[in-house]
């Protein structure tokens, strides 16, 4: 590969690396797994970059590669590394005037999202990233109508999980 291509890739990766970190956070439970997945996604992005035609935005293409890589690795391993329970470490960051209500709600929401299937998890992730249904559909390789229908079903699943 030539230096110009390499430079463009590195620049795009640096500008959009938060996408990869967010995907890693969604599909891993600890720092080492996060770093391993980040590295694997970066490798897959680099391998696929010469074929990136620019038909979609780089970030959309990056979401697709990152999510596909995470889902593929998750399905291969089917292992979940147990991490330290959130409640056992919350006292380390609490202060007297700190209101952790929102943090607890977010934790409940992320716990519920982690119970979803791979595609549903990716769908919610993109939705929470404020992607419109056109971009969600393009990223996941489904129709826009299908993305809307799936999202409504996922919302109902999440309601059931959060309000048993």
UniProtKB/TrEMBL annotation:
Residues 109-158 form the RNA polymerase sigma factor 70 region 4 type domain. It comes from the Bacteria. The keyword Transcription regulation applies. Keywords: Sigma factor, Transcription, Transcription regulation. Pfam families: Sigma70_r2, Sigma70_r4_2. One of its GO terms (molecular function) is DNA binding. Residues 14-79 form the RNA polymerase sigma-70 region domain. SUPFAM superfamilies: Sigma2 domain of RNA polymerase sigma factors, Sigma3 and sigma4 domains of RNA polymerase sigma factors. InterPro entries: RNA_pol_sigma-70-like, RNA_pol_sigma-70_dom, RNA_pol_sigma70_r2, RNA_pol_sigma70_r4_t2, RNA_pol_sigma_r2, RNA_pol_sigma_r3/r4-like, WH-like_DNA-bd_sf. The keyword Hydrolase does not apply. GO terms for biological process: DNA-templated transcription initiation. Belongs to the sigma-70 factor family. ECF subfamily. This is RNA polymerase sigma factor. It comes from Flagellimonas aequoris. The lineage of its organism: Bacteria, Pseudomonadati, Bacteroidota, Flavobacteriia, Flavobacteriales.
């Amino acid at each position: 590969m030539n230096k110009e291509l390499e430079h463009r890739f590195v620049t795009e990766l640096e500008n959009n690396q938060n996408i990869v970190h967010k995907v890693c956070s969604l599909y891993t439970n600890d720092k080492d797994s996060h770093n391993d997945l980040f590295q694997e996604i970066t490798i897959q992005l680099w391998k696929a970059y010469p074929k990136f035609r620019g038909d979609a935005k780089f970030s959309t293409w990056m979401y697709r590669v990152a999510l596909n890589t995470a889902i593929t690795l998750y399905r291969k391993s089917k292992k979940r590394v147990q991490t330290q329970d959130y409640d056992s470490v919350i006292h380390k960051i609490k202060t007297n005037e700190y209101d952790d209500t929102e943090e607890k709600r977010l934790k409940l929401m992320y716990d519920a999202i982690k119970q979803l299937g791979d595609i549903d998890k990716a769908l919610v992730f993109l939705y929470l990233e404020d992607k419109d249904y056109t971009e969600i559909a393009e990223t996941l390789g489904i129709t826009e109508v299908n993305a809307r229908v799936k999202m409504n079903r996922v919302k109902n699943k999440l309601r059931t999980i959060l309000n048993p």
